[in-house]
Design a protein that fits this description.
The protein has 230 residues and is an alpha+beta fold. The chain has helices at 6-13, 94-98, 108-116, 200-209, and strands at residues 4-5, 34-37, 49-51, 56-61, 68-70, 86-91, 100-102, 124-133, 136-145, 149-158, 170-179, 190-196. The chain has four helices and twelve strands; from the N terminus they run E-H-E-E-E-E-E-H-E-H-E-E-E-E-E-H. A five-stranded antiparallel beta sheet has the order 2-4-11-8-6.
Length: 230
């Protein structure tokens, strides 16, 4: 089945419900859910900064293939052998945003609205697809950037006991994170991500008040990380 690109979906997205405002971008509920988080840490200098509550949209999709990708005339990407379960893309122009394709089981409307509201003259969208275990949920704790590197920090907690899930099953969490800076995708040469075993609030307390606080994990160790895999 032919995927829909952002350009083809542009008109259908207009006029739909505004983005939801959520707390920490927590993934929860059904196999697919979307939340929006907003806020900032104040002013940032051009080319570098950090946000502990960035504008973001996230969708959770139960699928075995990458649900959002750049459409360059190729078919939907298949799962690569030895994949680390983490894919990143920098969307630095409206033209590049138009090339995004999404699978049919993805909630397109909020993604479309989020991209339409982005001013690519002064802002950049960081697209990150993360594979997580079905019985867990992630929250986006922080994003930081320089002119050549982007880093994200997530918290991971168990889903409520009354939400059905199967141990060992995985789902995709696809994050669209708005960076309040005009980055150049060609200049970004390094990505990193950490996933801790606590929620964002607990991790911030640990980072500020405990020695050795947090159980963060480098993106290089995502594959085969068992219960810590995101």
């Amino acid at each position: 089945m032919v995927p829909s690109t952002r350009r083809a979906l542009l008109h259908s997205a207009c006029g739909l419900a505004p983005l939801l405002a959520g707390c920490g971008g927590i993934l929860a509920g059904s196999d697919e859910s979307t939340r929006t988080v907003s806020g900032n840490d104040g002013s940032v200098s051009p080319g570098a900064g950090a946000e502990s509550d960035p504008d973001a949209v996230v969708t959770r999709v139960n699928t075995d293939r990458q649900p959002v990708w750049l459409d360059d005339g190729d078919s939907r990407p298949t799962e690569r052998p030895h994949s680390r379960g983490l894919e990143s893309e920098v969307i630095d122009t409206a033209g590049k945003a138009d090339r995004l394709a999404v699978a049919e089981d993805v909630d397109r409307s909020r993604i479309e609205a989020f991209l339409d509201e982005t001013d690519f003259e002064t802002e950049t969208v960081y697209l990150q697809s993360v594979v997580i275990e079905e019985c867990f949920r992630l929250s986006l704790c922080r994003v930081s950037w320089t002119t050549d590197k982007i880093s994200t920090d997530y918290g991971r907690v168990s889903r409520p006991y009354d939400e059905a899930c199967t141990a060992g099953n995985t789902v995709y969490a696809v994050w669209f994170i708005r960076i309040p800076d005009a980055l150049d995708a060609e200049d970004i040469s390094s990505y990193s991500s950490s996933i801790g075993g606590r929620g964002c609030d607990d991790r911030r307390v640990g980072a500020e008040g405990e020695s050795g606080g947090g159980s963060a994990q480098s993106s290089d160790r995502l594959a085969g990380a068992g219960g810590e895999q995101a």
